[in-house]
């Protein structure tokens, strides 16, 4: 569960995502619960955690959920054909679930303008 503007509706979802490099390592000195973690890699060891981030963190957000820092690149896999693997039973999808993060961001901005 997380309170990020972009990713809160994707809590609990397990998705593949491009990690283009081993940089972007999160070195977190405090206890895991002291951070607002929005995404984690599938497991601790390489290649599941490509850069060795503490607690397998792939993304964190500010306390209010407005600011996100993450290493993977969901913008590179919002269409099924962009994914290295996509479930066979979902190949007719026009878009992947990752697009929801960007829709959430747009909706949040629209609410702020109202």
Offer a few descriptive terms.
single chain, little secondary structure, 3-stranded antiparallel β-sheet, about 15% helix, flat
Can you offer a commentary on this structure?
By secondary structure, the protein is largely without helices or strands. It has one helix at residues 99-113, and strands spanning 37-40, 57-61, 68-70. The protein has a 3-stranded antiparallel sheet, with no helix packed on it.
Write the layout of secondary structure elements.
Layout: E1 37-40, E2 57-61, E3 68-70, H1 99-113
Antiparallel strand pairs: 1-2, 2-3
| SSE succession | EEEH
Rg, rounded, reads 15 Å
Helix coverage percent of residues?
10-25%
User: Largest sheet, described in full?
Assistant: 3 strands, antiparallel
Overall mean pLDDT stands at 92
Strand line-up across the major sheet = 1-2-3
How far apart are the termini? Answer: 27 Å
The secondary structure category is little secondary structure
* DSSP helical segment count: 1
Shape: flat
Low-pLDDT residue spans:
none
What is the percentage of strand-forming residues? 5-15%
Please report the total strand number as a whole number: 3
In short:
The chain has 114 residues and is low in regular secondary structure. It is built from one helix and three strands; from the N terminus they run E-E-E-H. The chain has one helix at residues 99-113; strands spanning 37-40, 57-61, 68-70.
């Amino acid at each position: 569960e997380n309170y990020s503007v972009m990713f809160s509706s994707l809590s609990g979802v397990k998705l593949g995502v491009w990690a283009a490099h081993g940089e972007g390592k999160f070195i977190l000195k405090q206890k895991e619960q002291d951070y607002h973690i929005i995404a984690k890699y599938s497991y601790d060891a390489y290649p599941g955690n490509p850069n060795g981030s503490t607690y397998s963190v792939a993304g964190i957000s500010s306390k209010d959920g407005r600011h996100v820092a993450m290493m993977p690149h969901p913008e590179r896999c919002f269409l099924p054909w962009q994914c290295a693997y996509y479930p066979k039973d979902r190949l007719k999808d026009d878009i992947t679930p990752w697009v929801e993060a960007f829709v959430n961001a747009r909706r949040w901005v629209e609410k702020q303008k109202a």
